[in-house]
User: Fold these one by one.
Assistant:
Number 1:
Amino acid sequence: MTKTVNQRAWLLVLPVFLVVAFSAVLPLMTVVNYSVQDTFGNNQFFWNGLGWFQELLDPSSQFGERFFDALWRNLLFSALVLLIEVPLGIAVALAMPREGRAVAFCLVVMALPLLIPWNVVGTIWQVFARGDIGLLGYAINRLGIDYNYVGSPLAAWTTILVMDVWHWTSLVALLCYAGLKSIPDAYYQAARIDGASAFAVFRTIQLPKMRRVLLIAVLLRFMDSFMIYTEPFVLTGGGPGNATTFLSIDLVKLALGQFDLGRAAAMSLVYNLIILAVCWVFYTVMTNVDAGGAAVQADPADAPGAAIPPATSIDLDRRAA
């Protein structure tokens, strides 16, 4: 008896493919086309091959030096964002109530910064951090600290970091809170019976159960922070000097300010490949760590210092399943 396969279901997916092709593939091919050409204006292009890419990846060239300077700024900013927001988000999630009327209130308050548009966030902090009329800038200057985010690179970096932490820590906290809510109460009951400390409960119960949501949070925050544009552009415009000129800002200046489409296209393609490569590394490393943690949980007799005895852990896993 032969089985008939109905392929008509692909007709339902076809509109999605067409939308993706129009909104992503066609612009990407246009950028690839510009990256291998040069122009003198008047919409006249001539073949340049891989010349822009060679110049971009050469640190000794002016274009390459400009690219790598912005790249190191981006990597430093993303690293600082992850080091601050992930632990802070976990701490906030642990402090949030698990039940009662306060839960809805806390969730709404935590979600409020995420609802503010990026350009509005930059405008808010542009006013808030001013030394003459801004509450933050005025208060810091009154403490005797010379604070001016448009004149000091350190002040500009600090302001952008604090602004990003204020804007996006809620996302990490909400994801971690969802992971904590998914933990069965039987685990906590067994930990209380065993007399486990709060740190032991966090290390052996809560943190392993949050691995997957932390993977999502790290990936989302890295991609967002590495592609940041609107907030620092509104706040500092990439200054003072080039102190806060990240790759996205430098790319827009190159493409729209100088109308150098060939170099801008080459930079955007390399920029995209860097994001994909780093996200793949993050995903691979954290997935392997998650798989290793799952293997340890599968054989609890080999896990030293566990807060829950092996037999109790097996019973809890069976109940949760």
Number 2:
Amino acid sequence: MNTAGDTKLGIAWIALCLALALHIVDESLTGFLSVYNPTVVAISEQVAWFPMPIFEFGVWLAGLIVANLLLLSLSVFAFRGSRWLKPLAYVFAVIMLLNGLGHTLGTIAGRTVASVHFARPMPGFYSSPALLAASIYLLFRLRTTAQT
């Protein structure tokens, strides 16, 4: 049975997916990989086991689009209040919250690591408030649906 809480959870899920879509556009238009790839190289030189890959633009963009479409396709389960989706929703919301915070803190610092500086704001910063707001909203909805 679909409840009002499930509907609000579905709306929150879609809101975060749309915020992620906006963020993908923001990052691709502002040259995010020009910061990301050198950061991964610098960290990998210090920490050999660092698991992050280097990306070419087309592969990176296609991967993000496919991932976001997959997440959007799961929205039907959010509207149904499917229990199995809730742990995934928590993970999605926390990762996007950290993503938004990372772009915000990077903008404040003007760098990611000591050797990777960039003109402020950091690429992807403009959509960070949408990621932060939508992540917090999804976490709030998950918390309120857990109480019902």
Number 3:
Amino acid sequence: MPVMVDGLRMPAIVAGDVALEICNTRAAWSGGEETHEYLHSYQHVAVWARHAGLLPDLATADAAEGERVLDRVLEFRRAYYLALTDGDADWALLSRYVRDYGPGLHAGTDSVADWDYGDDAERPLRAIVHRAAQLLASPHSHEVRACAGIGCGWLFHDPRGRRRWCVMAVCGNRAKAARHAAAHRPSA
């Protein structure tokens, strides 16, 4: 479910919690035939962070610095996804990111929700780590589900425990169509 933002393909915002959207920048977590990566460059990270609502404006970086930040974002995203899905999470890595990128965060002047992530290339990473740490430390982390769609695995907030699909019109309909085709397939 890509959308175009500033000329770049970005994933649709579907998780119901901005802290989960970073995990949905990769498709086919659940072992589908083909994975799709939305974060190919630092520019993709910066545009995505603004698109997801983590940053109010576009972060910038030179090429080498941007590449280092991209690598860190992808490393953190993988560990975070595994932590949320009861996978083999690297808690030491997650703790190091929270320790390294969490200090110095403080509320902005207007409201508690207006966090100052600095003005350097690591702004998107600080915002991602901050929101992720908040979710991991909250009881809402137990309300996170992975989409049951074949080849999806996107995460979403499911406080009532009733949701199965990231988007019913996409993954839910694919599953229904597959069940219908299997039920009406001629016997060999």
